[in-house]
DNA sequence: ATGAAAGCGCTAACAA
DNA sequence: TTGTTAGCGCTTTCAT
């Protein structure tokens, strides 16, 4: 910056003022400074600025992985918002518990970001408590965190609506398939199972734990085994509600291999509405991670810029059932 | 840090040394400092450090989007590597040309990162030139950049192998479908088409521009139209090589709707080997973005830490054809 | 409208 | 092994 100042024949203060777009700079000087800066290929060091302003100009995101439809959509949607506010996005990827422990051990975001976006969906209370002490706004995405700003969908209600759809089609034996082993998803998963159960209870259908199975979506063998368990029941299900599209699609694939027609002999319902859902003609409960990302971005922005923004604002996003071809009336039933 | 020093009864330098794990600190003092730091919930400000060390401790990534299999896999794989080296990852998402222009206009990474990973696959020469002046290592991922460190696959050779597979199956009318409108993919796209053409030429099959069509994978209508064009030809193709799995899968979906059996009446070949490929039983040319991410990470690490690392190292990653059920001998042909 | 000077939190000589 | 001191590149009073 000193170089720029010298070249433009002004002081560093003036350069600083100009580059930050402050008003009290004469047009003449402004032009000179900008020219000099350009000529020297100068860019302000955020690090030096942040040292004195106390603001870092970065938003941190704690994510379990980047390798998923949800995270990709959410963060992609977030990007433009942050850029518009001249904020950078730094991402902490913690694919396993060890990495996450390391994050919480050192809390590198502390003092190195203006806000934190948490995309881990199964924080322990202790972890949340540590985040409370971070001294910066922490926004929880895709989970409802009491007394803290959060953006989420009502997973329980959404799952309930999904199961109702199956009930309306006349299904009474409805299995629920969870995506086992996916660290970081248990919060939503739990809520969805609860919603599913609630719908069943409301319809007077007895709960049956043998109808709840689990398998990682990517593990075809595990999915096949889970399916085997269900089919081996004395009274096998006529429909399966998979808590994620990827799992649902994996299940459909497995069913096809076993020559079990979908939806004729087995209805399959998903959750998410990923692009693959349409390709598999999968009925599913849609949510929009892109909207979540945007809302979270706006929330974070307001929290950073406006000191008396509601520090516990909740944004509840809608879900909706998308009927496609993977669900049909139970055998011997009329359409609803 | 002053607080920690006071609490531990030592000077700030000692605290600094301790927290950076330097050796010349007595065990006793080390323990006191660590205790004090913990008690005060202290974390070093990277910004202040970087001001004096000149190293920022962050690696920047310029990406067209986060919302794709390729980017997700690559960046997810990169994460642990960077974390192990105590580096942060900041992501610049530039979904459109305007955003990208803004990035190049301000080059925010300058002085705010120790290295840059470029995942945009269609940089102009001018853009590359600007990156050369950045004063930090710039690693190109998924593209071969002359004289600059890059990690990539040989798209041309890979596509050539793909087309050869179709030729071996007896196909002679082979269409090539590009994913139109996907900003940031034209480099690979171009190379793949070249490789395809080369294989045809080598086999003595005449090139026919009417067999090259384009459509965005997500736009079903456009895919249907492109397919229509091909089917409307006097001599329609018996196989289609889609330059991406998503497009291939979208095409298969469209073919099914039109009651054109795959592979009986039309073979379809993809490129990538995304998870969806297996679900659609798609024969495809596999590449591994996760490996690319890892290699890029290691390259970047070596460039940052080792001043005399080869500044133009190239890492060429393998691809391989994965035969599945979406390709079959052309009608009237024997298997190869 | 502009400049001089102090200081943000840290690290890196240098001294002790 | 530890402490003292001088900046790193900026922003921000406070003068002018």
UniProtKB/TrEMBL annotation, chains A, B:
The keyword Transcription regulation is assigned to this record: yes
Domain HTH lacI-type per the UniProt entry, residue ranges: 1-53
Pfam families in the cross-refs: LacI, Peripla_BP_3
Gene3D superfamilies linked to this entry: 3.40.50.2300, lambda repressor-like DNA-binding domains (1.10.260.40)
SUPFAM superfamilies: lambda repressor-like DNA-binding domains, Periplasmic binding protein-like I
Alphabetical list of PROSITE patterns matching this protein: HTH_LACI_2 (PS50932)
Molecular functions (GO terms): DNA binding
Keywords: DNA-binding, Transcription, Transcription regulation
PANTHER family in the cross-refs: HTH-TYPE TRANSCRIPTIONAL REGULATOR GALS (PTHR30146:SF109), LACI-RELATED TRANSCRIPTIONAL REPRESSOR (PTHR30146)
Protein name as catalogued: LacI family DNA-binding transcriptional regulator
Record organism: Streptomyces gilvifuscus
Highest classification ranks of the organism: Bacteria, Bacillati, Actinomycetota, Actinomycetes, Kitasatosporales
